Amino acid sequence: MSLLAIGTVAFDAIETPFGKTDKILGGAATYIGLAATRFVKNVNVVSVVGGDFPESYLTMMQNRGINTDGIEIKKDEKTFFWSGRYHNDMNTRDTLDTQLNVLESFKPIVPESYKDCEFLMLGNLDPEIQKQVIESLPNRPKLIVADTMNFWMDIKLEALKETIKLVDVLSINDEEARQLSGEYSLVRAAQKIMAMGPKYLIIKKGEHGALLFNQNEVFFAPALPLEEVFDPTGAGDTFAGGFIGYLAQSKDISFGNMKRAIIFGSALASFTVEKFGTERIESLTEEEIDVRVKQFVDLVQFDIELENSL
Amino acid sequence: MSLLAIGTVAFDAIETPFGKTDKILGGAATYIGLAATRFVKNVNVVSVVGGDFPESYLTMMQNRGINTDGIEIKKDEKTFFWSGRYHNDMNTRDTLDTQLNVLESFKPIVPESYKDCEFLMLGNLDPEIQKQVIESLPNRPKLIVADTMNFWMDIKLEALKETIKLVDVLSINDEEARQLSGEYSLVRAAQKIMAMGPKYLIIKKGEHGALLFNQNEVFFAPALPLEEVFDPTGAGDTFAGGFIGYLAQSKDISFGNMKRAIIFGSALASFTVEKFGTERIESLTEEEIDVRVKQFVDLVQFDIELENSL
């Protein structure tokens, strides 16, 4: 297996009802990489940062198993910066500031050593860039997973549709699924979106869990009921990284294995929200992950024997 | 087992984005009874209707296994009437009209033949009336389940707390759990509410499923992703009726069996929302229920082996 992830590596400044941070490490590819390396080592990341990006962050990522050779450093520019404030429900947020900086002219360069990848994770980015990455690979990966957001549906819908055509698994949230399909029912939305290309669709519902669809099946994974959601930033990317990392480790892309991958992704995401930024996901132990996955098993398992053999 | 259900038997007039009804059969006890009789026959219902209540509705209820002897008919008064309009999301609604009519002076009279009940379902009603019913029984039932709503939290909170003290299982929705506890986190809300008396708490989250808590465990049942939610009226009462009916049939009130009861209740509720009013739940077959329950199993089942034996 080889796993390539593309996405932002960024600074975030976050306000929640529980506190606020200065500029801390953030970005989709950061969370994806930190989650995926729980399952596979040498996760290849393609991204771009500015000269202001601390060496210590790169070192931490390397120590956790991320290959940072593909993270371009533009010495005279500044790192992408996002700042947001979460509302009391922690499901909605206001963007306070977005400074694209290095992202404005980002042309991802996939190093030669990364190109023979079996698993490709396209973090949320301009869909044209996502497409360029797919087209830059000499062989089609075994599995392409893409994340996106409503922003691209608003301003680059046609480009987004072109990219979606090329991916195997699309990961979006419930409101985005409704926007992209024009259907309120998530079942109908899923059918319409899968007709656009992806064989699988993940619909993330935040504290309400996630749905995985293919043409004939649907799987639901709950989110763990937590006493406190401290900071939701990065939860979706952690989920995606855990999902593709688990699949890459097991080299099995059956629906049954995708269910397991969703549970592991959900378990990792449930850690990310416990502290600000990447703090919790950086320090996780194997045993903590297993205990958490066991909690998911206990949360949903039940035992019913039906009289009719169905 | 004997199962006693108390609640409204009513007329509803419903508007949804898909259409509207004239006055049709509704009421908490109606849905509870129609659901519970899927599991146990002779569900004893205590309620009140007016002289305008059609005999044919009572006959239908009797044919479905509901004992209507406890439904008082006040010939010179009118049946409780509720009218509401659902918004596009089908999760929120406006009440257009409420005519209490017979409910205004409702003093539930539990027939002698009903009094030795093992399972008691208190449908949403004035908490003082719910308490009177509990106190009118010579022996405490094996299990008391109560439903309530934000309306009573707004105007009769102290009385509601007195009633809650006496019940085993409280069933409310997520917003009501937050209102009753003053906690946003449902985990914290559940702890606070169980400290008020109930050993078990069910938090209904509509299209997002339901949670069952006791002091040490939590179980999550999803709602089935449906192509269309046609009319949510009665879904919560159907769920409650299925829940207590299943428990009464199996005479097992362990947490493990409550999980199964939640799944059966959710399955029945998923039918209720497919058509207006009681139409769908009236005509259900055993096999349809089993097929639906199997869909719940398929929706959430996954198979993970953890390396550490936890």
UniProtKB/TrEMBL annotation, chains A, B:
What InterPro entries does this protein's entry cite?
A: Carboh/pur_kinase_PfkB_CS, PfkB_dom, Ribokinase-like
Q: Which UniProt keywords apply?
A: Kinase, Transferase
Gene Ontology terms, cellular component aspect?
cytosol
Question: Which residue numbers delimit the Carbohydrate kinase PfkB domain?
Answer: 20-279
For this protein, what is any one GO molecular function term? kinase activity
PROSITE patterns tied to this protein: PFKB_KINASES_2
What Pfam families does this protein's entry cite? PfkB
**Would the keyword Kinase be found if you checked this record's keyword annotation?**
yes
Question: Is Ribosomal protein given among the entry's keywords?
Answer: no
Q: Known PANTHER family for this protein?
A: RIBOKINASE, SUGAR KINASE
Protein name, per record: Sugar kinase
Organism equals: Acidiluteibacter ferrifornacis
